[in-house]
Amino acid sequence: MSDIKKIKELRQTTGAGFKDCSAALEEAKNDIQKAIEILRVKGISKASKKMSRDATEGVIALSGNDEKTSVIEVNCETDFVAKNDDFIKFVKELSEINNSCYSDLEKVKKTVMKNSQTVEENLIAIIAKIGEKITLGRSKTIKNENKLNFSYLHTVVKDNLSKLAVVVSLEGNDSDDQIKIFGKQLAMHIAASNPLALDVNDIDNKIIKKEEELISEELKNTGKPDNIIKKISIGKLNKFKEDNSLLNQPWVMEPKKKVRDIVQSLNIEGLKIKEFYRIKIGE
Question: pTM value?
Fold first, then answer.
């Protein structure tokens, strides 16, 4: 094989530039496998310099079915890269791996991809090729016995990739068409209303404490008596809990009713919202 053919093959395999491939082959004495290793080591060096930069763009990838559904966040620095064909191809395969690994990122990184390299090795290679910081962010798999999952993607980049994704798991008679319509609508509601928890008592105590501090700070200079401030504070905190718990939010398609009212009015035996997950890129 001529030197030019070897350089072309090395470029196709690694995605590295002509000069880098030529130099790597020279160092490896025209051994393509050794040249690939040399480029990978150099790629690691290049990639590590990029990892100190901010990566707040990217995509959310959704995979699975109505019994087991997974999402994973893949961040990059610019929206331009989020639409890059190599990036999209990598993320789409990664999405399926994430689902098979139940969103265990350590397992995901060690999983071998179709090109016989691990996810971690491919991540390093794509960083070196594209020239941006790329990271694996949050991930989640929802699988509940005898439950049905529904999903919604907002601002779709391509196929199963978007900027915002929602998965919600419902318990009930899955043969009822009403539950399928409601499941899709509920996923859209969660995307729009961004609830923090299913019910008021499920909101993280740290969030409640922070909100109490903010309310206290807001009211301390009003000049009102302490007993009045206390009443106002309790009212504001209760309003915050209601606004941020899914069951107590106004239903986006009929705001005069709450989500819990809609669940009851559907009159589907055993209908219950089991859990949900909402993820927005960079949020």
Answer: 0.80
